[in-house]
Amino acid sequence: MSLASPAIDTVFAALGDPTRRAIVERLAASEATMSEVAAPFAMSLSAVHQHIALLEGAGIVACEKRGRERWCRLDPRGLERVERWVGERRRLWERRLDALQLYLASGTAGTKTKKKRKRP
Amino acid sequence: MSLASPAIDTVFAALGDPTRRAIVERLAASEATMSEVAAPFAMSLSAVHQHIALLEGAGIVACEKRGRERWCRLDPRGLERVERWVGERRRLWERRLDALQLYLASGTAGTKTKKKRKRP
DNA sequence: TTGATATTTAAGAAAATACTTAAGTATGAG
DNA sequence: CTCATACTTAAGTATTTTCTTAAATATCAA
To answer: Which distant-in-sequence residues (6+ apart) come within 8 Å of B70 by Cβ?
Structure first.
C-alpha cells in the first residue's frame, strides 16, 4: 500500500531516461491507457509497460485498471519532490553566492576573516 | 565554447546517479577541489573525476583550474533547467485537474460535453 | 463458448554505465 | 633538477538497464 514515498533515488533514476520523460510529457496533457501511451514509440508495448511500471514505482505516475485497460495519469507529488530537491540545493548555493557578493562589496575582502575591523 | 546549454537529456541523466547527486549536495555547501569532493566516497579518484566531468558537461557544475587543483562549484543554471522542466509539466497537469474539479462542481457532469446547458 | 483486445510476465540478448587499474601530464616546493 | 601532489587519460571489466520475443492472463463482445 506504499504509504512512504519512494526513495528520491528512484524518482531521479526514473526521470533519467528519455523515453520515460516523453511518457511524463504525454501524461501531462491528459490521462491515457497504456496502448495510447505506447502508440508513438518505436518499441514494443512490453517495453513501454516496463517504463510505466517504473514510473509508477517512483510515484510519478499513478495507474488504475478499468476493465481490460490500464489508465495512467501523472502523480504531481512525484514531480514535486524533484522540484523541491533541486530547488533546495540551488537556493542553498545561490544564497551563499549572494553572501559572498555582500562580503566583497563591504570592502572587507583580503582581511582573512576577522570580525569587523573599524577602519584604522 | 558551449554557448548553447546541454540537452535536457544530459542534465537529467547526470542527476540520475546517486553519487553525482551526492556531489551536487556537497557543492551546494561550498566550492571544493576534486580531491575534497572525492574524499568521502569509497571509490577511486578517477571515478569521481569522471562523475565531475559528466556534471560539468551537463552544465550543473562549473570547474576552474587554479594551479594544480581543480576547483568545482555548482552552476545554478543547470539545476534551474530541471526545476523548470519538471515544474512546467506538473503545473500543466494540475491545471487540468483543477479544471476537472470545476467542471464536476458545475453540475454539468454526465452530459457528454455540450457548451453550457441552461438548467431546464 | 469462441475469438479478439489489452495488458502482463519471464527470460535472455544487447547496449550503456560505473568502476578499476595503470600509466600519463602539470604544478609547486625545496 | 628532483620529488611529491593533484589531477588526467586510456583501456578494460562488471554491473545495470533497456528492449525483445514468446507465452501467459484477463476482459469484452458476439
So the answer is: B33, B34, B52, B63, B64
* Residue A35 contacts strand C, CB under 7 A: yes
Report the SS3 class of residue B33: strand
Which of B17, B27, B89 is facing A28, going by the closest CB pair? B89
CA A99 remoteness from chain centre = 28
DSSP string for A9-76: HHHHHHHTSHHHHHHHHHHHH--EEHHHHHTTSSS-HHHHHHHHHHHHHTTSEEEEEETTEEEEEE-H
CA–CA gap between residue B67 and residue A31 (Å, rounded):
55
Q: pLDDT tens, position by position, for chain A (120 residues)?
A: 456 888 999 999 999 999 999 999 999 999 999 999 999 999 999 999 999 999 999 999 999 999 999 999 999 999 999 999 999 999 999 998 777 777 777 766 554 443 333 333
All domains of chain B in start order, with CATH: 8-77 (1.10.10.10)
DSSP letter at B58 equals T
**Phi, psi at A92, each rounded to 5°:** -55, -50
B76 to chain A: closest CA residue: A90
Cα A40 from Cα A34, distance rounded (Å): 11
What is the pTM assigned to this prediction?
A: 0.87
Q: What's the grid cell of residue B80?
A: 534551474
Edge-to-edge strand list for the sheet holding B69-74: B32-33, B69-74, B61-66
- Phi then psi for A68, rounded to 5 degrees? -95, 5
The SS3 of residue A104 is: helix
